[in-house]
Amino acid sequence: MPQISFEIVAQCPVTGARAGLLHTAHGVVETPVFMPVGTQATVKGLTGRDLADDLDVRILLANTYHLYVRPGPDLVARMGGLHRFMSWDRAILTDSGGFQVFSLSGLRKISEEGVVFRSHLNGDLHKFTPESTVDTQLALGSDVMMVLDECPEYPVSREYARESMERTVRWARTAYRHYLERIAALPTRHALFPIVQGSVYPELRRECAEQLLELDADGYAIGGLSVGEPRPLSMEAVEAAAPLLPPDRPCYAMGVGMPDELPEYVARGVDMMDCVLPTRNARNGYLFTAAGRVIIKQARYKDDPRPIDESCGCYTCSKYSRAYLRHLYLSGEMLYSVLASRHNVQRYLDIMREIRHAIVLGRLPEHLKAVRAIPVEAG
RNA sequence: GGACGGGUGGGUGAGUGGUUAAUACCAACAGACUGUAAAUCUGUCGCCCCUUGGGGCUACGGAGGUUCGAAUCCUCCCCCGUCCA
Question: Is A303 exposed, middle or buried, given 0-12, 13-18 or 19+ CB atoms closer than 10 A?
Answer without folding.
Answer: exposed
